[in-house]
Amino acid sequence: MASQNPVMEAPNIWAVAQQQFDAAADQLDLDDGLRRVLRVPKRELTVNFPVTMDNGRVEVFTGYRVQHNLSRGPAKGGIRYHQDVSLDEVRALAMWMTWKCACVNIPYGGGKGGVIVDPKQLSQRELEGLTRRFTTEISPLIGPDRDIPAPDVNTNAQTMAWIMDTFSMHHGYTISGVVTGKPISIGGSLGRNEATARGAVYTLLDASATLGIDLRGSRVAIQGYGNAGSIAAQLLANEGCAVVAVSDSTGGIHNPAGLDPAKVNAWKREHGTVVGFPGTDEVTNAELLELECEILVPAALENQITRYNAPRIKARIVAEAANGPTTPEADAILYDRGVFLIPDILCNAGGVTVSYFEWVQDMQSFFWTEERINESLKGIMDRAFGSVHEMAKRHDVSMRTAAYMVAVARVAEATTLRGLYP
Ligand code: GLU
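^ thats the input. predicted complex w/ glutamic acid below
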């Protein structure tokens, strides 16, 4: 079992994001000027803002909205609420959104937001107050034609409803396209809630077909039981996989014979944790990564697979439903060991892809069926997987570097065609 806690290493993920970009820029032989432009975010806004808490005390919170690149369209990317949010983290996440949107070829740049807060410590009323004031503070940057937030870690459809309402109140009419991931009744899209997990499963089907592995009967371990992890567990069980382990921020559970995700969901709803689910052994989040399985799905936070635990990972496929779960040192180790990695900017792009469908539907006030959404999502994910895999084979590079090469080449082309102003 894990002897070191991989989280302890915690490299600065902004440095990681730049290192990943540099590797692709080298492979593409990118012009020096372009490198300097694409290596840094275009805009960064830091806001310190007051919220009146339930006990009458005024607390000041710090939040960020970063726009990395706008060459291919408006900035797009989620807002996360977490006690460990930092400007460097939001920078990395914003840059990853630029590459993610370009990797699946949707017409967006990249942005991200975050507030330093542990939302579990706040009441619903406090969370609403925090969300409305944060929206007001970042409103000079956001808008349906300039920067469109969405859910991320610890934010959800309700959070998006508050953002949409606050922004609409400022303007005096309803502007549903300012955020995606909204509830269906106020302009949300069918299939958006499941989209990150569904997109990841489509890439897993592509990867297993490429490797000649049958998903049916494959053992899967999933780290993280939020939107991506919990829905991936259900969808993979529907594909005939045995989901042998899952975890949340409080710990994990393991049963080599497989878990029933519907029952685990019910348990988590009742107890607030997956831990204690009957018929399972308890594992830590670090131990889960090293369990016997064919498929490992990191679906939590960054920096989970590091040089310390990468040599002991047993899975044949790692599907990055989380953003940034693997460090560059771990990438190299997994690649040398022949582990097939589906990189985050490809694997979890289903979320932003259905966000794109939601935004298009809002603009047209014409809403699609769930079948049309899932079919269109599959088309985009399969095409993106094909381009990345083809790039990896042609240049004999890892799937990570290949995904970056596909994405960076598209953003570089857009930037070059537009030219530098003035
Ligand atoms: N937060 C999600 C991501 O990291 C979704 C972003 C979006 O839909 O704009 O991709």
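Residues 370-395 form the longest helix (26 residues).
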